Amino acid sequence: MGGLRHGPHAHEPPVVVTAPVSDKAIDYFHTLERRGLNFEPISWQDACADPRWRTDQSTRLLAAETPGDPDTQGPYQRAIEALEAYEFADPDIVRGVYDPTTPLDGRNMLLVGRFLHLRFHMGVRIGGVVDETATDEEDRPIRSFGWHYRTLEDHLEQGQMDYEIRKYLDSGEVEFRVRGYSRAAPIGNPVVRLGFALFGRRQQARFYRNIVDRMALIATDDRPAPPPT
Length: 229
Fold this sequence. Notes:
CATH architecture: 2-Layer Sandwich
Distance between the termini: 12 Å
């Protein structure tokens, strides 16, 4: 899914796109390094207690493999590779642009949102990378890989999304866990502001539904067909 895409200018290095995007999107991606966050991060617990934030979370059982350490070519490994490559996002809703040579922790990524014939360029920064063996809230042994991203200046929203792939070492079950807190960012364009108010939440809910469905297909090696250009 996706592939290398060269910048429209000779001095720009190639980037990875999860599905085809415009040269304008590639140009925008190269501006993300100088953009800061557009909000002050808070904890998940604080966001849940603050009515100014909208919170969402979802957990999906993806598959099961042999108990114990993850299989090198099993559902857990396939899921974490898709998570790192941002292949789990439905390209009909959002497409990713990033430089795979940069460390995952601190990596900038452009999300190209798609609604009808409109395209929205939304920068995020990845952080909080976890790759460890630990115990969960019920003292069950798990292997966990995950990260979050936070929204940058000029994003339509403010907030954070957390993604985690978890394998329960005692049962072999592999889960995809997603949670996020968000709110609308100040939007100067009145047409975009109205459209986001009318359709933003619907698209967000669609995004949540689709990512867990797509990740289940990927984990079971039944990948969705690539989108048209």
